[in-house]
Specification:
With 213 residues, the protein is mainly alpha-helical. It contains eleven helices and four strands. Strand 1, helix 7 and strand 2 form a beta-alpha-beta unit.
Length: 213
Amino acid sequence: MGGVIVEVRRDRAVSRFRAIGVDDAEQLIDAYHHRGIFLDIESGAIDADTFCRLLCLHAGKHIPRQDIEHAWQSIINPPDPHILDCLLALRKKYFTCLLSNNNPILIDRWARTSRFSTAGRPINDYFDKTYFSYEMKCVKPDIEIYRTAVRDSGITPTETLFLDDSADNIRTAEQVGFATYLVRNGEDWRTALNEILRRDGNAPDFSPPLCPH
């Protein structure tokens, strides 16, 4: 999700967590792979309530739950409606899945609600299947999270294009057999995707482009 569907703003999240008392946020928050309790919540080792409690202990002060949620949600920009429209267009012709390192504060409190999109649609409306690391108890680039998603969804990796903004995640996806495209954080990848699909001999020549601009 981060870096592909929504732009990641690590700098803003670090600043917000520092402002509420997490002085070492720079060391804990990463654009691709968090550390400490920030990794623990993404891997499903701890739940949201435990994360909030441990964060208060880590900071040595009480931090209101609302402030923690606000800080977490600051790590991303809202999704571009054009990207979401593209996902809906893709679903008409392709089986689409989301595999994301993420946490329950962002997903359950935002992405799975009507606040996710300007259209009032939750993230589940844009994919046939969604897989989140905290629910799978595993994080990318661990190969097992890919294998689990493949088994559950029934997809064939060699017939699947995998988009991600992390080179490490891309390398593991290629080991599983996926075709891949490395997205720059916040990139409008619609043109590149259309070109890839048109190069695929099994894909029709979409006119107008499959993903609207």
